[in-house]
């Protein structure tokens, strides 16, 4: 069995995570032309399985390719989009949709493809005789390496999976109970990264400063110190609390920063306000208020960090009053020394806000971004286009599915 991993421009982190646990056992070949490469291997008598790791932005780019490939070869799709909308992927012909931890799913899928098992693989949905079948749900410990030598991909090290919060625009918390990578497993990976000359160690964590938090909400300062010291002792430079391990405003406290200040390699700390409308903060289930974010900005500055505050324009139901409150708060935060990272609401399948229309981009946001251009960052204008594209793609898919009933011919 050869695994063809569909790679795209960019870091391919999700794919590295997917293949890492099996790459010692199976041959992994990266591909940018899965139809051609699979056909060539098939002609030589090889069995192939084609792997996709899908975010929603990627899915809307390549859904037609997915139909073409899945119509001829067995396809496995995982990633946040697969977990968010597995049924559409099955209807488009994907044979195995991974909706939970991939570490246990992929080996079982391979066994099934090789005829060694009849079971529906764990954490996987399949379609049989027009009916969806679900494998049992299994939550793994974070003990598997997450880099892939076969793909040459060394993503940030995942130290925390899932989230104890339930923000209505976010897909992350649907990953099951919160789990942390044990420190010794982090250390093993850091040593490999440093040996490869990758001294800058970044982490993936939904909330960076909640690594090893006992209740998923209160920073475990001893564990954070141990994490950062371990990285430094292994020769690495730890970046935590900044992309892609942004944190929450409640975790940016004097206690945390005085403990971590001299251990962190980053000078920026990123956390979300998202909106300054207390009404929308509640609707989005953020679990903090505006004052908490202002305190976090003051605290970060007091310890010499540059606070970077995330804002989401266009949340569903956002009205003029919400926009005015948010723009005023952004002006205040900028005057306090924060940078503002602007986003536009992206509807993501599987989230409570999926199906709700984004509010149109308000001109007050555009004017703010112009006036404060030296303090504003982010890709919010591109996200306006992306947001529209997701909605439009789903309209097209709905039309496509009503005209056709694609069934995977792959065996
Ligand atoms: S705190 Fe962050 S990761 Fe957790 S649910 Fe909210 S947005 Fe998602």
Automatic annotation (TrEMBL):
<dbReference type="InterPro" id="IPR023980">
    <property type="entry name" value="CHP04013_B12-bd/rSAM"/>
</dbReference>
<dbReference type="InterPro" id="IPR051198">
    <property type="entry name" value="BchE-like"/>
</dbReference>
<dbReference type="InterPro" id="IPR006638">
    <property type="entry name" value="Elp3/MiaA/NifB-like_rSAM"/>
</dbReference>
<feature type="domain" description="B12-binding">
    <location>
        <begin position="1"/>
        <end position="120"/>
    </location>
</feature>
<keyword id="KW-0411">Iron-sulfur</keyword>
<dbReference type="GO" id="GO:0051536">
    <property type="term" value="F:iron-sulfur cluster binding"/>
</dbReference>
<dbReference type="GO" id="GO:0046872">
    <property type="term" value="F:metal ion binding"/>
</dbReference>
<dbReference type="InterPro" id="IPR006158">
    <property type="entry name" value="Cobalamin-bd"/>
</dbReference>
<dbReference type="Pfam" id="PF04055">
    <property type="entry name" value="Radical_SAM"/>
</dbReference>
<protein>
    <submittedName>
        <fullName>TIGR04013 family B12-binding domain/radical SAM domain-containing protein</fullName>
    </submittedName>
</protein>
<dbReference type="GO" id="GO:0031419">
    <property type="term" value="F:cobalamin binding"/>
</dbReference>
<keyword id="KW-0479">Metal-binding</keyword>
<dbReference type="InterPro" id="IPR058240">
    <property type="entry name" value="rSAM_sf"/>
</dbReference>
<feature type="domain" description="Radical SAM core">
    <location>
        <begin position="149"/>
        <end position="382"/>
    </location>
</feature>
<dbReference type="InterPro" id="IPR007197">
    <property type="entry name" value="rSAM"/>
</dbReference>
<keyword id="KW-0408">Iron</keyword>
<keyword id="KW-0949">S-adenosyl-L-methionine</keyword>
<dbReference type="GO" id="GO:0003824">
    <property type="term" value="F:catalytic activity"/>
</dbReference>
<dbReference type="InterPro" id="IPR023404">
    <property type="entry name" value="rSAM_horseshoe"/>
</dbReference>
